[in-house]
Amino acid sequence: MKNILVLLTFAVFFSCTDNSTLETYDKDQIPAEITVKGFSKPDIIQMRLNGQPVSINGATSYTDKIETKINFVLDNGETDELEIYNHQTGNKIAAYSIDYTNANDYKNLYFFNLPGIFLQTYAVKPQVNLGKVGFEFIFPNLGEFSGSSLQGVKGVLKRENGVVLAEFDNIGKKDFTNVKIYNYFSATAPVYLELYKPGTIEPYTGSSVIKATVKQDIGANMIVLQEKLENGVVVIKGDIDVADYL
Predict the structure, then answer these.
(1) PROSITE patterns given for it (predicted)?
(2) Would you call 20 helix, strand, or coil by DSSP?
(3) 117, 152, 153, 181: which has the highest count of C-beta atoms within 10 A?
(4) Is the pTM of this model over 0.90?
C-alpha cells in the first residue's frame, strides 16, 4: 500500500511540474523555422545566426545553389540576428532581425547574390521553346533615385522600329513578372523597354519617355532593372540577367 501511495504521489508531482514547464514555454518561447532557398555566384557566402556560422551539409560557407532549414527557439523580448556575409571579404550583405512577434514574416528566405546586386526574391528559369525569346523583369530599387513612390511600373518592350514585342502590366520590386514570349528575330538588333505609370502612357517619373536598352538572348532573359544616376540624371539600366547564372 505504501509503494502504491508513493507512486501516485510521484505521478501527481511529475504531472504538475511538466504542465507548468509547458505553460512557461508556450508563453515565453516559440519554435522558429526558416526555409532558405538562395543562390550566390561567384561569391562564397556564409550565413550566421547570432554570430554563429550556419552549417549546410557540414559546410559553413557555400556558393551556387543554397538550400537549408534553420531551426531555433525565439524568446519573448529578445531578438535573434540572421546575417549573410561575403566569406572572402568579410563584408555584410544582408541582415534580418527576427523576434517573437515577427517570426511568421521569416518562414521563407529567398535571395540571389550576384555581382553588384543582392535580390531578395525566388526565381526559376522559365522554359522557352527553341527559336523563341522569353522576358521576365524585376525592379528592386524602383524610386531610389527618382523619388517615385510607385511599387510597380508598366513596361512595353519594343523593337528599334517601334513594333511592340510584349507588354508587362506591373513590374514590381519583389518578384519577377510572368514570362512573355515572342519569336526571335536578330542576334544584333537592340530591344527597348519603355516604362510608364501603371495603366497609363505617362512616364513613371519626369516628363520624358523613359527607355532602357536590354540585351536579347535567344531563350530566357530574366532582367533586373536598376535606377542609376549618370551626371545627375536618373537612367534605367537592364544589364543584369539572372538567367545567365541559372
Answers:
(1) PROKAR_LIPOPROTEIN (PS51257)
(2) helix
(3) 153
(4) no
* Cα 163 from Cα 191, distance rounded (Å): 10
The type of residue at 13 is F
Question: How far lies 93's CA from each of 96, 118, 152, in Å?
Answer: 11, 8, 25
**Which helix (H) or strand (E) element contains residue 93?**
strand 92-99
- Report the alpha-carbon distance of residue 94 to residue 113 in Å, rounded: 10
d(CA 129, CA 133): 8
Specify the DSSP class assigned to residue 36. E
d(CA 172, CA 150): 9
ω into 42 cis (within 30 of 0): yes
Contact by Cβ (8 Å): 25, 67 = no
Contact 232, 197 (CB under 8 A): no
Are the C-beta atoms of residues 241 and 215 closer than 8 Å to each other? yes
40 touches 34 (CB < 8 A): no
Alpha-carbon span 37 to 90, nearest angstrom: 21
